[in-house]
Amino acid sequence: MTLFLRLLFRNKLAGFGAVVLGVIVVLAVLTPILPLQPPNETNTADRFLRPLQGGHLLGTDHLGRDLLSRLMWGTRLSLAVGFAAALVAGLVGAAIGVVAGYFGGRTDNVTMRGVDMLMAFPYILLALAIVAVLGPGLLNALIAVAVVNIPFFARNIRGVTVGIAHREFIDAAKLAGMGHTRILLSEVVPNIVPVVVIAMSTTIGWMILETAGLSFLGLGSQPPQADLGSMLGEARSALITAPHTSVVPGVMILLIVMSVNLLGDGIRDALDPRLRSGALARPMATTRVERAGAPMPKPEDGLLQIDDLETQFHVGTRVYKAVNKVSLALNPGECLGLVGESGSGKSVTALSVMGLVASPPGVITGGAVHLQGQDLIGAPYELLRTLRGRKVAYIFQDPLSTLHPLYRIGDQLIEAIRVHDPVSHAQAHRRAVKLLEDVRIPNAGARARAYPHELSGGMRQRVGIAMALANDPDIIIADEPTTALDVTVQAQILALLSDLRRDRGLAILFITHDFGVVGQLCDRVAVMYGGRIVEAGPTGDVLTAPAHPYTKRLIACVPELGGGQRALAAIPGLPPAVDNLPEGCAFAPRCDKAQPSCKTGEIDLTGDTRKVRCLFPEVAL
Ligand code: ADP
Ligand code: MG
User: Fold this and answer.
1) pTM here?
2) Dist CA 312 CA 323 (whole Å)
3) N or C: which end of the chain has fewer CB within 10 A?
4) Ligand 1 lined by 278 (C-beta under 6 Å)
5) Predicted confidence band at 275 (pLDDT cuts at 50, 70, 90)?
6) For 11-30+56-271, which CATH class?
7) Pocket of ligand 1 contains residue 613 by CB under 6 Å
8) Are 493 and 512 within 8 A, CB to CB?
9) Residues with CB under 5 A from ligand 2 (ion)
10) Is the CB of 578 under 6 A from ligand 1?
11) Which ligand is nearest to the CA of 352?
12) 19 confidence band (pLDDT: 50, 70, 90)
């Protein structure tokens, strides 16, 4: 709740709306006990008094009634009717939408066609017709406004429900033997409540206006009862001679509708979980850089050189040190493995290279990334854009979510080619087919016309690799490319990457949590834990004689085919949260060799070709 309020007030306009509306609502609630004059007492001797005349703060109307009092009572009524109409329309509309969307088929058809019939009439005419049938009066105006708004809610909510009704957690609830009513109430409804609240908060203002409109036409509140619309209606004839009688209710309507709409926008933003961490608020084209101190010296050689890279996530007052002074070097044609448990900062390291970490909340706070001698941290977006995909390409874990579901894979490849190389469509197509052949997709010409969902997981990952190869990059950063695949397909993909590396002289930064995979592909390996490199060295050496206890235990987790029976070791405990890292070695709490000295001070990465960050390494380096 406090988070919600904080998010809401982060939007200044929404905060302003909340304050204005709050004041108005409090005044409206307190109206009966405020020292106001009776709202309906006429005194024709005091007609059309100006504000502040004769003891009337806002003056009087054409019957000499106190405008302030009528304004307060009218506001009270208008707010009540507007909120009630929104509530009725929201609840009934949502109920129709949920039922139609969940059951689908004939239920959906019948109810939605009924809703469509309501929608077929012009909005305000329908409201007028309903009041004409029911007779004038505030309650009937409320019913009319609610009814004409039901289709809006029903359509909206049905759409959302259809999306939810086929999700796995609904299937799971059905498998668990839950009845329809329970599934609707406990699984579907909680998911649509935010949508209903958002739709309501953005339409209440509109409904207050509609009710005022009906009252203005004399179809809503009946004399002498005041609401904002009827006050405007009665003041219409004196618009020129006594303008204050119209201005007073007019300003109130303006204030209410404006504050409701501002607040509604704020509520929508605060309720959307994707906006919460600021992820979608104002995504920047490159990661934000806040680097203190002098720039790093330029390295002499090397293809990609990462020096003391620090990437953090700033969420509220919390600082997540996802990447903490990481240094890596990648030479042409080399494959470097980056290994670590989930959450150790591998992906963030990889994404930082091309400034792809989402900002906010990501910030690069230190270090340098040199690509062929050029510092990429803080480089202008235009430069990064020409390098992304052309010099450094990425392969991600789940190709189904990185490929566009609605485009044929050939077209997606063509697009990737033409971003950097303005060749003709036919030429790009030929290259796309060639790429598909290069990644050993059989019958590539025909496959180019397939959609991503028509391919198997392994095929899709091959397409992902083909796309990374599209512009002949020097470096491929592969972020767990085989994690979603089964072991046989994984072996094929690894063999493919290995061949491509040989044929094209590619350098690969290969991210994985599996030491088995590292052994097959990588020349060197770096082990990450809690955002830091804890060990690095040639793969063979590290695999045969791991120096850091963490590396040793990670290697022990890999099952060996034909290795006989042995209990597979697991590492007890959980990786540390990077917003609150312990002092000393981050692994110490889980390490059975930890000494008191491991938990104090800074422990350095020592060694030359083989490096380790441990006071008591398993082997002497
Ligand atoms: P992995 O090694 O599994 O690829 P990541 O690099 O994705 O791990 O994440 C490293 C750390 O960064 C995680 O501990 C996570 O808590 C933190 N992190 C990642 N994204 C965000 C984010 N948007 N906001 C806050 N923390 C994040
Ligand atoms: Mg990752």
Assistant:
1) 0.70
2) 7
3) N
4) no
5) low
6) mainly alpha
7) no
8) no
9) 347
10) yes
11) 1
12) very high
